Amino acid sequence: MSKHHISVTINGTVYESDVDSRTLLVHWIRDDLRLTGTHIGCDTTSCGACTIIVDGKATKSCTMFAVQANGRQIMTVEGLEQNNKLHPLQEGFHEEHALQCGFCTPGMMMTSLALLESNPNPTEEEIRIGISGNLCRCTGYVNIVKAVQYAANKLQASEEVPVSAGQGGE
Amino acid sequence: MIPGSFDYVTASSVAEAVALLEQHGDEAKILAGGQSLIPLLRFRLAGPSVLIDVNRIPDLDYLQETDGALHIGALTREAELDSSSLILARYPILHDTAKMVADPVVRNWATVGGNIAHADPANDHPATMLAVGAQVVARGPDGERVIPIDEFFADSSFETTLRPSELLVEIRVPAPEMHSGGAYFKLERKVGDYAIVGVAAYIVLDAEDRVTYAGIGLTNVGATPIKARDAGQSLIGNVLDDAAIHRAADLAAAAAHPTSDTRGPAEYKRAMVRTLTVRALRKALARAHGGE
Amino acid sequence: MAAEVQHHGLGESYKRKEDARFIRGQGHYVDDVNLPGMLYGDIVRSPYAHALIKNVDISEALKVPGVVAVITGKDLDAAGLAWMPTLSGDTEAVLALDRVHYVMQEVAFVVATSRYAAADGAAAVDVDYEPLKVVVDPHKALLPDAPLLRPDKKDRQPTNQIYHWETGDKADTEAMFAEAEANGIVVKQDVYVPRIHPAPIETCGCVAQFDKATGKLVVWMTSQAPHVHRTLFAIVAGLPEHRIRIISPDVGGGFGNKVPIYPGYVCAVVATITTGKPVKWIEDRTENLSSTGFGRDYYIHAEVAADKDGTVKALKVHTLADHGAFDAAAQPTKFPAGLFHICTGSYDFQKAFVEVDAVHTNKAPGGIAYRCSFRVTEASYLIERIMDTLAHDLGKDPAELRMQNFIKPEAFPYRSALNWTYDSGNYEAALRLAMKDVGYEELRREQAEKRARGELMGIGISSFTEIVGAGPGKHFDIAGIQMFDSCEIRVHPTGKALARIGVQTQGQGHETTFAQIIAAELGMSPDDIDVEHGDTDTAPYGLGTYASRSTPVAGAATALAARKVRDKAKKIAAYLLEVGEEDLEWEPGRFYVKGSPAKGKTIQELAFAAYSNCPPYLEPGLEAVNYYDPPNLTYPFGSYICVVDLDRGTGAVHIRRFLAVDDCGTIINPMVVEGQIHGGLTQGLAPAMFEEITYDEEGNIHGGNFQDYLIPTSMETPHWETDRTVTPSPHHPIGAKGVGESPTVGAPQAIVNAVVDALAHLGVRHIDMPITPWKVWKILEEHGLAAD
């Protein structure tokens, strides 16, 4: 077992740590850094509850080691709200009742954030494809699609540029 | 859920990765996308002592058409294939394949090289690469080697003919000829699952619409990725009419060695090889004619 | 006084108050709990389905760096804790002592300073097993040569049969069947309802913290019923109940999975007491699917006796129920088969007789879970399937056959042949609305045209009646505790309120909907009413949230508590306005003098007065509590119509449309109700086409992880269409019935009926769930209809 020193930027803050090789990124974020918004729902990379953004890419953080994140830019759900202003996705999930128990929600929003970066005006079909790696047991997905559409409309209409997945937060 | 212990090293070049492979032998495993390897580690089904992380090697992810071939860097992520306009326009069979690998988030990290090197008969790219007649480029202590895809997969699951200490660095797909087309169809129980059955078909036609090349690859119906040779052979020299398509489909089904499991009875899988071969050939033909 | 207060009543799609923390990733789930010095537990589990334990060697595990302790069955036995009672009157192993009964059964509990060390420790425990013959088929478990799976209770249960239960009128039912055999029609059907698993995205777990100085045990727990769990911990562990505090914080989905007490919880409690440190145990997904409470696993034989014209007369049902290795089914104790005898459904059967035989096998325990309303999923499935079969056998349209046999609106309250008194219903209106919304006539025409061309299209109907809101204390108890529920409201001097309820949301939106109930009664804004629950030190005793009981029972308690508050406020108003109570009128938020509307007092003014100028003959303050013992259950209902197209090449079923009309009585929040329906429908689709837990001959589980247990993604899930009728419950204070499980109860059979309908002209009468492409393809192939 080797220990590695890592330096990772999460939501604009640099975190330095000594981690074991085998420490999963999701455990490091949740247990060591106490950023518990990212959740664990399975053990086969199937559910997406652990989805965060790593260097602009939606990533299942249970299927990456913390050491692999060294030097990278990460965004978690805690980075969505900026200057006390909710991101249009957060607003959309609330307005469209796209969450019930809330457990899949952070991962679902991070996947949606990355989706909207690459496809700012997705159709329902494209949204459903985009979130097909994130499982929800409560909502039946109908309102999640609406929430993403809400956010897409708001982002396109807005002059401001809220935090983006690619920037990793400020 | 929690992996066992291992050492971790990062390679910053192919040469360094090869040297590390030489140093650690079969105690080491390459960590590329990790989307197949890390789940195995978490269930303690694999227990390497060392992981060699190749993700930091620069210039190993690229999509370049030169010298009559598409060169795919081994570290190219499935998501890049999925979203590439070059691939969609000129290699739609690769687009078909990439978009069926796992799910969209996994595709951000899963690599084409990894999908092939893992040699899982349930992975999607092997069948497609067999169908198009790709080549695999490997680099090892003795230099670079080009391996035809037909010779790349060994006779048992999860084994390739890569030599110890060789790293897969590139895949080469022949550039499309004038009238050529391919398609990949995957039947899955749900998004994110491995194939019940997958069929890749690629054809090249001459000016009289006769088949000059036909490759058919099969996913998850045997211990290894399967090239349905007789099926492809049966099409050579013929026009791709319904009779020829059905004949090839029957031969493809005969080439399959499916087993009954939770993805269906063997009888069903064999029948689906037939059905998907028909559908893939029809789509390949439509694309060869410039349609969709 | 204050600024204009907004009033919000029932029927408003008020945006959810609880969202604020979840969208920020600030939800507080059990695995988010982090305490100083906290240790982690991991469980050693059996790889065998049935085996004797010869030895448990923990010596290597104790050497693993970070491992602090390893608890075995023997350790628990010394404290009398190796076995614990179940909710069904059986006992269940906490940690196996001399034998294991199913793959993944708990054998030892490793405690360590980190998750990773605990996992390494668990891997290092060496258990010596002697395998025994395995029984996975419940039919085989009843054969005379079957091994006795539960020798521990052989004196009171000498075979693998747990119970035989029956209800109804056997003699009269048989007489009606004899008559129908002679002059009418008898239809028979065998249906299997497979074992499935609720699989909420958050798995089960707890953090147990025992404080030696105060003697207080605090357990953060994924619990759907924290008070009942507290009482059970007190009884089972012999700890004083006033020194146990269960906190169910935010729960990431329940669906019945978080009702039972699991060995992991008990072990964590033992570990915190012995180590003096907090102990966290969180199971992983494989553990969750393989060992925690499953749902269904019913082999049903049903028969309907009807007149030649299709008027139903009598129903006969026999069920073989596979309960796994322990009878840990979570249902009211007097109903060993739950509410299965709602199986006469929406139809006016004159006589019925139902028998259930429950049996042990070498599988994980459970049976009642997954949004089932206590076996109503099984009941509704069988009746909706056999009604469709009756229709097809008679050559009658399935919608028409249902209309012909529906209980008529004027028959309510309706006493069924199996002695349930349905409160209210209008089944025909719901079905007609569904048919109108989906364009039924046009679809039938399209089906006929397509059939002539060899295209396979099907239309399936499900007109279900639900039974929820358990229940009247005389008949309904969980572990002896009557199934009332509660609400306590305290209004502060400045007119804001804090309410605590005895139920426990796992996503159903109680913080909003229960605030709306109070808001409607008191004419306040839901923003001014915060609803808390889940902490047994502060919330009034309740039986928890499952079986769609929260709105029917705790919702009633909440409305009545709010009315008590209003009644007291009225007395204060009379005092302040110097009139008699009979001279006061109420409008939302205000009492005023009859004939002098300007002379009034707002609820906020009255709240302040309760503390500052209280009538001398009243206690100061403004609070009320209500414990509600419901007079009856409630009966939501609905009609669903599903349209499918079959791929003749692959057998794949494409759901083209799914139209759900639900009637849950008075709707508190339409947005929340619709969300519940979307989710419930998805959990009805899942068993119909995707999810199944199966076992091989050695008792190894298939479907024990999310690679193999096929939770539908956004791609498999159709775009659900919903509509509503409203038939209030006459006995509920606000007429509400509950809705959470209705869609899961009603949906699977709509889908199965649709697929069978697509193939009925070939003589197909039934296809068991899950309907996989290969099952459909096999039928097509046999009939020469498989194509490209």
What does this structure look like?
The complex is a heterotrimer of chains A (170), B (292) and C (788). Chain A is of the alpha+beta class. Chain A has helices at 25-32, 88-95, 105-118, 124-130, 142-157; strands at residues 3-10, 13-20, 51-54, 57-60, 73-75. In chain A, strands 2-1-5-3-4 form a 5-stranded mixed β-sheet, with helices on one face. Chain A is globular and about 45 Å long. The mean pLDDT of chain B is 97. The longest helix of chain B has 23 residues, at 266-288. Helices cover 34% and strands 25% of the residues of chain B. Chain B is α+β, with helices and mostly antiparallel strands and 292 residues long. In chain B, helix 9 (229-235) packs antiparallel against helix 10 and helix 10 (242-255) packs across helix 11. Chain B has a 5-stranded antiparallel β-sheet with strand order 4-5-8-6-7. Chain B has a 4-stranded antiparallel β-sheet with strand order 9-10-11-12, sandwiched between helices. A 3-stranded parallel β-sheet of chain B has the order 1-3-2, covered by helices on one side. Chain C has a 7-stranded mixed β-sheet with strand order 3-7-1-14-11-12-13, with helices on both faces. Helices cover 29% and strands 25% of the residues of chain C. Chain C has 19 helices and 35 strands. With 788 residues, chain C is an alpha+beta fold. Chains in contact: A-B, A-C, B-C.
